[in-house]
Design a protein that fits this description.
610 residues, mainly beta, Tachylectin-2, Chain A, Jelly Rolls, 3 domains, 2 helices, globular, binds beta-D-fructofuranose, glycosidase, Glyco_hydro_32_N, sucrose alpha-glucosidase activity, hydrolase, 2,6-beta-D-fructofuranosidase
C-alpha cells in the first residue's frame, strides 16, 4: 500500500471539510445571517433582514443556550433555547418583525459548564447550519396525540391556565407558555379565546418576560369601575414575575386583551419568602374591594386592595388543613350555592405539588366561609380532592362567567412527567371545561365537576345499545370512523355483580381498564397497559376513588380524545382525568362482570366533532 498516496487523499478530504466548515461558520459577509465564533460556547449572530421569523432548530436533550438580542447596544429580548447540537427535533420561531430594517446582534451563550458540551461552536453544531430566516412558520399539526376538542397550544410548552376572564362574549384563556421549546422555560402568557368553550382561537403571546423576570401564573379581572385608573372596563392581569425571587406585577389591556401594557411601577407586591406566587384576584362586593389569594410556601395568604396596585395583608390559611405533601400553588376562591338548599358556601381551590393522591400534582379544595378577610374551613380534618386522576392540575375558574356559572379548567398533566410525554410539537393540553357546584353527602359538602354543557355541541353520529353482562360482552368498533375522539354515556343497573368492568382497547392489545368495585365501593381506572407508558416510571398507574355505597344505578360519562380519558361519575360527583398514549385509537370496548351480572340499560357512543 502506498502510504504517501493515502495521506495525500486524506489531506484532500481534510481541506475539503475545512473549506465547507469555514464557509458555513462565517456565511457570506453580505448574508442576512452572519455567524462569528467567540469561543468557549459563546458566539454572535448578526441579523439583517425584513423577514418575519428567525427560525431556531431545537434538540430536546441539548443544554439551554441563552440568546440575548441586542439592537443599538440595548438588549431588547432574551430567551433560552435548547439549540440543536447533533440533530434537529423541531424548529421554533422568534418573531423579529417588530425589528424590521434594524440590525439585530444576538449573543449566544451556552448555559452549562459540562465538559461534554464545551466543544460547542458554530463549526460543530447543527444549529448554525440549520438556523434560518423565513416569512412563514408552519403550525400545521404533526402530532397523532393532539386532542381534537381539548385546548392545546399550536406549538411549544403549556402548563397552568392563567388569567381566565369573561368579557364581551369572549372567554379569555391565558396560559403558562414556552414559545421557544416544548419543555418548561421562557414562561410567558400565551393567549386564546373562545365564545363557546369548545372552539378556540389562538392569539399571539400576551405578556412576555422582562427585566423583572419570567411571567408565572396569575389571574385577570375586568375593572369596570376604573379603580386602578387604567380605564373603565380595562382587563387587568395580575401575575407573578419570577427571577431569583418572586414578586407580583400587573398589566392592563384596553382592547379586550389583544395587547397589554405593563404597569410602570411594578412590582406591586413583594415578600421575603421565596415561594410567593400565583395571585387570584376577584372583586368582593360586600367589602367593596379587591381580594387577592396568593400561594405562599404551604399556605394561602389573603390580601386586599382598593385599586389593584396597593395591597394589604389580611390573613393566612393552611396550617393543619388538608394535604401538605408539597408546595401550595394556584389558588382560587369563590362562592357557590349548595344544591337543593338555599345555602351558599365558599370554596378555596388549592393546587398542590407534589403530594397528590397518586403522586405528583393534584387539586385539593376546602369548603367554608369567607368574610372578606379570612377563609374558614368547615371540615379541617378532611382532605378533599377535586379529581381522582393523575392529570388534573393548576385548576382555576373563569372570572365573570355569564349566568353565575363557575367554570373550571385544569392543565391535563402532572409535574412528575409533563416534560417527558411522547409529543414534541406541543406539550400538554387542558382538561375539558367543567361547571362546578356543591352537593351534600354524608354530612359533608363536596364539589361537583360536571362537563360543561357546551360539550354536547360536539356530538356527531351516535350509536345506542342495551344489554346484560354476565361474564363478558364485547362491542367491537363502538362507532364507525372512530379516530379516537368520542364520548361514552353509560347507565348501568347492578344485578348483584361484585365487579362491573369495562375496558377500552385497540387491536394492538393496549387498553384502559375501568371498574366499579361494588363490594369495596370504588371506581378505578388502570392505564398500566394503555400504550406508551415507558417514558417515565411514574406514568403507569391505577387511579381510584371511593364511590357512595348502596347505589344500584350507576351513571358515567367518558370523554376520550386521542391521548386522554376523563371519567365523570353521577353527573360529576366524582371526576378522574388520565392521559394515555395508545399507538392507535381504542375502538373496541369489552364489558365484564364478576360475582354476578349487571344490566347496561344504556350504552351510547358519540363520535365527537373537532
Ligand atoms: C404550577 C406552577 C405555578 C407557577 C407556574 C410556573 O404548575 O408551578 O406555581 O406559577 O407553574 O410555570
Amino acid at each position: 500500500m502506498n502510504v504517501f498516496l493515502l495521506s495525500k487523499q486524506f489531506q484532500a478530504v481534510l481541506i475539503y471539510f475545512l473549506l465547507i466548515t469555514f464557509s458555513f461558520s462565517l456565511r457570506a459577509a453580505d448574508s442576512p445571517l452572519l455567524i462569528k465564533n467567540l469561543g468557549e460556547g459563546h458566539y454572535m449572530v448578526r441579523i439583517n433582514t425584513n423577514q418575519k421569523f428567525f427560525l431556531l432548530p431545537v434538540e430536546e436533550t441539548a443544554p439551554d443556550v441563552r440568546i440575548s438580542m441586542i439592537i443599538n447596544n440595548e438588549e431588547v429580548k432574551w430567551l433560552d433555547v435548547r439549540l440543536a447540537m447533533h440533530k434537529v427535533d423541531y424548529f421554533v420561531p422568534v418573531d423579529i418583525s417588530s425589528y424590521s430594517g434594524r440590525t439585530i446582534s444576538c449573543k449566544f451563550k451556552l448555559q452549562t459548564n459540562d465538559p461534554l458540551h464545551t466543544n460547542f461552536s458554530p463549526e460543530n453544531t447543527v444549529c448554525c447550519k440549520e438556523m434560518r430566516l423565513s416569512d412563514t412558520f408552519d403550525t400545521a399539526n404533526r402530532e397523532k396525540y393532539r386532542p381534537t376538542y381539548h385546548f392545546s397550544p399550536l406549538y411549544g410548552w403549556m402548563n397552568d391556565p392563567n388569567g381566565m376572564v369573561y368579557k364581551d362574549g369572549e372567554y379569555h384563556l391565558f396560559y403558562q407558555y414556552n414559545p421557544y421549546g416544548s419543555q418548561w422555560g421562557n414562561l410567558s402568557w400565551g393567549h386564546a379565546i373562545t365564545k363557546d368553550l369548545v372552539n378556540w382561537k389562538h392569539l399571539p403571546v400576551a405578556i412576555a418576560p422582562d427585566a423583572l423576570g419570567t411571567i408565572f401564573s396569575g389571574s385577570a379581572v375586568v375593572d369596570y369601575d376604573n379603580t386602578a385608573g387604567f380605564g373603565a372596563g380595562a382587563i387587568v392581569a395580575i401575575y407573578t414575575q419570577s427571577s431569583d425571587r418572586q414578586v407580583q406585577s400587573i398589566a392592563y389591556s384596553t382592547d379586550n386583551g389583544r395587547s397589554f401594557t405593563k404597569y410602570e411601577n411594578n412590582p406591586v407586591l413583594v415578600s421575603e419568602v421565596c415561594d410567593f406566587r400565583d395571585p387570584k384576584v376577584f372583586w368582593h362586593a360586600e367589602t367593596h374591594r379587591w381580594i387577592m389569594v396568593l400561594a405562599v410556601g404551604q399556605e394561602m395568604q389573603i390580601f386586599s386592595s382598593p385599586n389593584l396596585k396597593d395591597w394589604t395583608f389580611e390573613s393566612r390559611f393552611g396550617e393543619g388543613q388538608g394535604a401538605h405533601g408539597g408546595v401550595w400553588e394556584c389558588p382560587d376562591l369563590f362562592e357557590l350555592p349548595v344544591e337543593g338548599t338555599n345555602d351558599k358556601k365558599w370554596v378555596l381551590l388549592c393546587n398542590l405539588n407534589p403530594g397528590g393522591p397518586f403522586g405528583g400534582s393534584a387539586t385539593q379544595y376546602f369548603v367554608g366561609s369567607f368574610n372578606g378577610k379570612e377563609f374558614v374551613n368547615e371540615s379541617p380534618s378532611k382532605t378533599k380532592w377535586m379529581d381522582w386522576g393523575k392529570d388534573h392540575y393548576a385548576t382555576v375558574t373563569w372570572s365573570d362567567a355569564p349566568d353565575n356559572r363557575r367554570i373550571a379548567i385544569a392543565w391535563m398533566s402532572n409535574w412528575q412527567y409533563a416534560n417527558d410525554v411522547p409529543t414534541s410539537q406541543y406539550r400538554s393540553p387542558n382538561s375539558v371545561p367543567r361547571d362546578l357546584s356543591l352537593f351534600a353527602a354524608d354530612g359533608e359538602i363536596y364539589l361537583k365537576s360536571a362537563p360543561s354543557p357546551e360539550l354536547l355541541k360536539l356530538r356527531d353520529i351516535s350509536k345506542k345499545r342495551s344489554f346484560k353482562v354476565s361474564g363478558t360482552r364485547t362491542v367491537k368498533e363502538m362507532i364507525p370512523g372512530n379516530e379516537g375522539a368520542y364520548e361514552i354515556e353509560l347507565t348501568i343497573k347492578n344485578q348483584h355483580a361484585d365487579i362491573i368492568g369495562f375496558r377500552l382497547y385497540n387491536d394492538k392489545g393496549e387498553e384502559v381498564d375501568m371498574q366499579y368495585d361494588m363490594k369495596e365501593n370504588k371506581f378505578s381506572m388502570d392505564r398500566r397497559k394503555s400504550g406508551d407508558v415507558s417514558f417515565n416510571e411514574n406514568f403507569p398507574t391505577l387511579t381510584w376513588t371511593a364511590i357512595e355505597s348502596g347505589r344500584n344505578e350507576l351513571k358515567l360519562r367518558l370523554f376520550v380524545d386521542k391521548s386522554s380519558v376523563e371519567a365523570f361519575g353521577d353527573g360529576g360527583r366524582f371526576a378522574m382525568t388520565n392521559q394515555v398514549f395508545p399507538s392507535e385509537p381504542y375502538c373496541h370496548i369489552g364489558f365484564y362482570s364478576k360475582g354476578g351480572s349487571y344490566k347496561v340499560d344504556s350504552f351510547v357512543v358519540y363520535r365527537l366533532k373537532p
